[in-house]
Design goal:
Layout lengths: L4 E5 L9 E8 L6 E8 L4 E6 L2 E5 L1 H11 L16 E8 L1 H6 L7 H10 L15 E4 L8 E5 L17 E7 L9 E9 L5 E6 L4 H21 E3 L6 E2 L36 E3 L14 H17 L8 E2 L1
Parallel strand pairs: 1-5, 1-15, 5-14
Antiparallel strand pairs: 2-3, 3-4, 6-9, 6-12, 6-13, 7-8, 8-9, 10-11
Length: 319
Amino acid sequence: MENSVSLIGYPQAKEDAQHLVEKLVLTSDGDKIDYAIVRDLQKDQCIRVHANQFVVTAGAILTPQILFNSGIRPKALGHYLSEQPCTFTQVVLKQSLIDGVKNDPRFAQGAAEHKEKYPLDPLPFKFSDPDPQLYIPLKGDRPWHCMVHRDAFAYGGLDPRIDTRTVVDFRWFSIIKPRFENYVTFSESIKDNMGMPQPTFNVTLNDEEKESCHAMMKDMMRAATAVGGFIPVSPPQYMPLGTALHITGTTRMGKQDDGTSVVDEYSNVWGIDNLCLGGNGVTPTGTACNPTLTSVALAIRSAEKMLGNQNNHDNWVFI
């Protein structure tokens, strides 16, 4: 397709969900992508997708997996993996806080209306009250991001008989700094359940990060105990690495092709003129909060540059 762009990533429509991008095929001189090989999973046959520009947006793990399977393997591919260590607990609000609602001028009227409508309800909270949504951004002497809400990600194991209006979740997120020795590798011989190279993760925290996580746990416990008591099934705990699902760095951005990055400042893969990458993987630094807005900003910047290089933007292909 002349003057077209192929976006390879998450399915955009129901009919796309049965297709798998297996690899990108380079031109004979190796400086451009010629076409993508896409498998129709229902018919078990492959098709070729041709375009002038290719954009891979398959996430921080599947994007480098596609590149690896395509033989596109820059030194930094899969390396500099960063994630967010997470501490978590759930607490039941102190009775004094619950009792204080009906006398608080901010909530007294609503509590009185609720009591009149539901005189047998022991709680002063309206059933229609929105769940709490509070965050505290990180700062220099507290390098973690704090979230206080209610069962937003179903980490806990609450008994269904517990009235969740009395329960508050605490989630604190710290930073793993990008380092070459934290990485995901892909097997030459072992395949995953989609027939693609099996990923294996090699990620550790250094001493500084371990101390930061310990301080983060103490900070979370101090905040949680000020509000209530811990629920036995959700005590203060470190969640397994990867729980935050905010992996970055595996296709990181850089200012020069020196082996420490995969793409340039406009998300273009070094040495391949018509291949750009999107998603959290291009983020070059560690983060303690959701990286989506950063990735969107970088994608817009890349798209603007890409549009400037295209004479005709018709016939874009979404895969």
